[in-house]
Request: fold
Amino acid sequence: MKVNLPTKITVSRIVLVVLLWVYFILVDTLVADPIYLGNSGVSLYFLIGGVFFLLTSLTDWLDGYLARKLNMVSDLGKFLDPIADKLLVDSALIYLAVTSFDTLHIHFACVILMVARDLVVDAFRQVAASKGKILAASYFGKAKTVLQMIAIVLVFLNGWPFSYFDAGWDPALRVASWFVYLATAVSFLSMIDYLWKNRAVLKEEEHGIA
Reply:
């Protein structure tokens, strides 16, 4: 099977996620004292990771743009794209919840809600795939992904640039944390939207059983 350029970019995003994980495993294992950039509160290692994460995230826009521009939308691309997104975003969410670095963390309850949302949607997509249907991501789902990526980058940067005025606040009330809460809410709403719009998949299953 010939793989087109947008799909190759999607596959490369999966490879980059693996490299990002290797980087943070090495940082957590080998780095004892973090290096901070001036008075910004931003760790050099997290800045590198955040930039890497951001560049990897941009490939999500690039493969979608090329697929539409070059008329190369494929079922394989529709299948792999949300998987690549979830691997990137969910792995970063989990890492930022459990990292031992002295930096802003993502509350684990938010991580559980967002990862659980992805598990539900993936299970629903598998039901559709078993019937020969591939369900593309909705605009609501794309908005969820964008908000998650923004929130993750802000946490990687320890809330910068908002940290210039909210660094002394309770971590749960900092601006970066509110982006995390917003991403969590939109993530949940996107699940409801996705299930409702594709509810016919389950109705057909019920008819088949009957």
About this structure: Confidence is low (pLDDT under 50) at residues 205-210. The chain has eight helices and no strands. The CA atoms of residues 41 and 158 lie 7 Å apart.
